[in-house]
């Protein structure tokens, strides 16, 4: 038996540098002592360890072999052998549902890796490259109730315009950098609306409209497929994340955007 699982609003996640570590059947969790327990194999292998398994009576013995560090630990025992020296662990590793769990803090301290804990998004960020990293996933905010005198679409446009000047980042989905669909999906997530992270995927949502209103999605194409999306802000203008100027307000009715405009969808 392992320690009892406890869950926050979202399951805990593990990120290495800028990428979330995928887990399948076995997932990280916060135990009763508020320690983050993680499935050993996927984390250790992603950190560059070779993982070897064996039985020690009715327990599991695991050996991790890295370039500079070797670790031997046994489930149910509160100490491990690290480079030939015995070291106490924050809690004993345990075997549960065909998976060995260990405290993440033990792995990172053993390998000397800096770790950040993002409380809002419940992500442990392992800085394998020694640099600080922003979360690769952001918890969507609860829908923001609009004041009685201001509809939700106006609130959404107001939020979108706050990010004007944010730099462009291919695949970016956070205020550190957006691509066009990442920007739109991030803004709408603040109001409890989930959208695909592709402009073509967004084009399949909502209802087509010609009488544009604030908050409508506007789409563009230079070929056969949709390749850009923005948010209509009124007065013939829209805001979007552009490759050349980052998040920027442009005219829908003149110049480049006018010639590539495809149509609009309403999702609010």
Report on this structure.
With 268 residues, the chain is α+β, with helices and mostly antiparallel strands. It contains six helices and 22 strands. Strands 17-22-18-19-20-21 form a six-stranded antiparallel sheet. The protein has a five-stranded antiparallel sheet with strand order 1-4-5-12-11. Strands 6-7-8-9-10 form a five-stranded antiparallel sheet. Mean pLDDT is 89; it is low at 6-10.
Brief rundown of the structure:
The chain is α+β, with helices and mostly antiparallel strands and 268 residues long.
Topology diagram in text:
Layout (H helix, E strand, L loop, with lengths): L4 E2 L6 E4 L2 E2 L8 E3 L4 E4 H7 L3 E7 L2 E7 L4 E5 L4 E4 L2 E4 L5 E3 L2 E5 H8 L2 E5 L4 E5 L24 H10 L11 E2 L2 E2 L1 H10 L9 H5 L3 E3 L7 E4 L7 E7 L2 E6 L3 E6 L3 H6 E6 L2
Parallel strand pairs: 2-14
Antiparallel strand pairs: 1-4, 2-3, 4-5, 5-12, 6-7, 7-8, 8-9, 9-10, 11-12, 13-14, 15-16, 17-22, 18-19, 18-22, 19-20, 20-21
CATH class of the largest domain: Alpha Beta
* Total tally of structural domains: 2
State the helical fraction: 10-25%
Compute the number of helices.
6
| H-E order | EEEEEHEEEEEEEHEEHEEHHEEEEEHE
Spatial strand sequence of the major β-sheet: 17-22-18-19-20-21
Strand content: 35-45%
The CATH H-level superfamily of the largest domain is Copper amine oxidase-like, N-terminal domain
Q: What class would the helix/strand composition place it in?
A: alpha+beta
The CATH topology name of the largest domain reads: Copper Amine Oxidase, Chain A, domain 1
Distance between the termini: 48 Å
CATH architecture of the largest domain: 2-Layer Sandwich
User: What's the Cα radius of gyration?
Assistant: 24 Å
Largest sheet report: 6 strands, antiparallel
Q: Taking all residues together, what is the mean pLDDT?
A: 89
**How many E strands?**
22
Q: Name the overall outline.
A: elongated
């Amino acid at each position: 038996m392992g320690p009892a699982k406890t869950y926050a609003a979202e399951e805990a996640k593990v990120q290495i540098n800028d990428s979330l570590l995928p887990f399948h059947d076995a997932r990280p969790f916060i135990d009763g002592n508020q320690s983050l327990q993680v499935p050993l194999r996927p984390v250790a292998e992603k950190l560059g360890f070779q993982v070897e398994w064996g039985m020690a009576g009715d327990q599991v013995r695991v050996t991790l072999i890295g370039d500079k560090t070797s670790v031997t630990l046994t489930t149910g025992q509160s100490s491990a052998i690290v480079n030939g020296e015995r070291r106490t662990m924050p809690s004993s590793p345990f075997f549960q549902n065909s998976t060995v769990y260990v405290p993440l803090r033990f792995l990172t301290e053993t390998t000397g890796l800096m770790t950040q804990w993002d409380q809002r998004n419940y992500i442990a960020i392992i800085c394998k490259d020694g640099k600080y990293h922003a979360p690769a996933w952001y918890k969507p905010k609860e829908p923001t109730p609009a004041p009685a005198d201001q509809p939700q679409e106006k609130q959404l446009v107001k939020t979108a315009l706050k990010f004007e000047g944010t730099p462009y980042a291919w695949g970016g989905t956070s205020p550190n950098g957006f691509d066009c669909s990442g920007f739109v999906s991030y803004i709408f997530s603040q109001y409890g609306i989930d959208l695909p992270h592709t402009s073509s995927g967004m084009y399949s949502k909502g209802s087509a409209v010609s009488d544009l209103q604030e908050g409508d999605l506007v789409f563009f194409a230079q070929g056969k497929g949709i390749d850009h999306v923005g948010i209509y802000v009124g007065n013939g203008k829209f805001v979007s994340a552009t490759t050349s100027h980052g998040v920027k307000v442009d005219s829908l009715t003149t110049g480049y955007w006018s010639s590539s405009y495809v149509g609009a969808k309403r999702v609010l």
